[in-house]
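At this stage, I wrote out one protein's amino acid sequence and its backbone structure tokens, and that material follows here:
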Amino acid sequence: MCKLAAKKVQVFCSRLTWDYVEPYLNNKFSRSAILIPVFGYLILFNDYVVGNVNFKNLTSPLETKLLLSDSARLKFVYFGLVIVAINTFMHRILRPRILSQGRNLPEYMDHALTYFTIGQFVTLYQNQGNSPELAPFSKQWAAFLNDARWTIGGPKENLSTRESKRIQTVSFSAAKKTHEDLLRTILTQTYNLETSIKRKSLIAFLVFATTGYLLLLIPSFDLFMRVVLATFSGN
């Protein structure tokens, strides 16, 4: 049983990618939490807040050792937000750079096909090395380079710099359309490779984020239990 569970965990970790958990680690809430370490103590540890935010009208003056005190709930919220904030900040620094160009493969594909230069595509292709997925495209890659790059036919063609850039842009745009299947294959291989690196760091970020979210859920569960107990106790 333990071996089966360990195997499932190993399979899960092997399939875990940065883009898959990006919405969990980097969302509007987690980005907003970054402000808490700076301003949170002014609010959450303010004497007025601690003394008045207690939900007694909702829960009745219910006292039990099983439930948290008002100050304890605020501390859970504060430390939960701090952990989420620090985790989000470090995640945005240490995550694969490719995620800043696209939170998922379609976004990255659109960004790359729109803004990448010939040099960037050459770098991506060379980084793939002897990838078996790109082996069938070797001739098409040479054709793409030939179509994408331009040279002036001879010294008599005295083109202005602006005209030269226009011709180059047109040639590159046409080459991207002609060889789009090749470029999409290169981009897919690159994205899958880059979002699968540093899995230990990714798991650490997941653990810290989950810890922070659980600390935030504890006061909510505590309030829920107060309301339930107050309702059914007849107070």
Observations:
- Residues 99-194 form one domain.
- The two ends are 48 Å apart (CA to CA).
- Residues 152-157 have pLDDT under 50 and may be disordered.
- Residues 21 and 206 are 8 Å apart (CA to CA).
